[in-house]
């Protein structure tokens, strides 16, 4: 017979786990809380010793300074367009490539996938010069299109979705679809995509946040002030010998709002899909 563990012996372990989780949450949340504290106070309050840790009443004033210094909403619109288009295209292109790698056997498949994994290990800075030359040759330097094209073939996205499709989409289901006359794209659209929604939700968060926070490549390839992305525009808040950190943090706080919204939307899909799969598998 299986021994029944008394409830009392479980409580210390459960209490310890809750304490550790609570501490982890506090450590994770503190940078965001500190950003809000800095954005609602003045720079003088931040430099006090000890620094002021309570929320202030200068948020609207700091936001007004941000709007007076840079074209915040224009830059946010540029970034929103780039991040949204990039995310949609990454989901489509990467899922197609991942489906091909996972469920189809073709000459050179293992070699191509090994090269893909190898590309994941290379620093992104190595691609800056070739990408700039390519964008210059096709006349895209200074346009938002130069930010979208290089991000389409996401090596991590293909690797992530390939592993998910290989383990989460049964071969028998695809064989049955082929017997019924379903072609490649119909299998992909009607069978594969509905079954990999949790993986797509995670990749959507990953791609959107990456495109939203990208700084180096937009700084290099964009030369038109009207096409600046938000991260490049926020960098212009650091002017002169002194920096108004309360104004900078107000800009950062405003730029973080769309990320929170996107994370909330796709995180729900990721959790719901994972829970649905767990219930079906039980």
UniProtKB/TrEMBL annotation:
A Gene Ontology cellular-component term: plasma membrane
GO biological process, alphabetically ordered: transmembrane transport
Main location: membrane
Ranges of residues in domain ABC transmembrane type-1: 76-266
PROSITE patterns in UniProt: ABC_TM1
Membrane topology: Multi-pass membrane protein
TM helices/strands, residue ranges: 15-37, 76-99, 111-134, 140-161, 188-209, 247-271
UniProt KW keywords: Cell membrane, Membrane, Transmembrane, Transmembrane helix, Transport
Subcellular location: Cell membrane
Database matches in Gene3D superfamilies: MetI-like (1.10.3720.10)
Pfam families according to UniProt: BPD_transp_1
Superkingdom of origin: Bacteria
Family: Belongs to the binding-protein-dependent transport system permease family.
Classification lineage: Bacteria, Bacillati, Actinomycetota, Actinomycetes, Kitasatosporales
Name recorded for this polypeptide: Sugar ABC transporter permease
């Amino acid at each position: 017979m299986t021994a029944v563990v008394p409830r009392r012996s479980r409580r210390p372990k459960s209490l310890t786990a809750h304490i550790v989780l609570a501490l982890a949450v506090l450590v994770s949340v503190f940078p965001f809380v500190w950003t809000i504290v800095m954005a609602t106070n003045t720079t003088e309050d931040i430099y006090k010793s000890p620094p002021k840790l309570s929320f202030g009443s200068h948020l609207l004033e700091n936001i007004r300074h941000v709007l007076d210094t840079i074209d915040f909403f224009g830059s946010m619109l540029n970034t929103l367009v780039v991040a949204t288009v990039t995310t949609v295209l990454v989901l489509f292109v990467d899922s197609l490539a991942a489906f091909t790698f996972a469920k189809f056997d073709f000459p050179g498949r293992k070699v191509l996938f090994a090269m893909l994994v190898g590309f994941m290990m290379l620093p992104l800075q190595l691609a800056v010069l070739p990408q700039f030359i390519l964008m210059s040759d096709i006349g895209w330097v200074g346009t938002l299109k130069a930010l979208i094209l290089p991000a389409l073939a996401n090596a991590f996205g293909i690797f992530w979705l390939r592993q998910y499709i290989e383990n989460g989409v049964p071969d028998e289901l695809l064989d049955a679809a082929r017997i019924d006359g379903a072609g490649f794209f119909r299998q992909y659209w009607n069978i594969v995509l509905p079954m990999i929604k949790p993986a797509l939700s995670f990749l959507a968060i990953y791609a959107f946040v990456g495109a939203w926070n990208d700084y180096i490549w937009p700084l290099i390839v964009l030369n038109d002030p009207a096409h600046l992305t938000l991260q490049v525009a926020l960098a212009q808040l650091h002017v002169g010998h002194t920096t108004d950190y309360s104004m900078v943090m107000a800009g950062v706080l405003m730029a973080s709002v769309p990320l929170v919204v996107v994370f909330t939307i796709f995180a729900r899909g990721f959790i719901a899909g994972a829970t649905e799969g767990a219930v079906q598998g039980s």
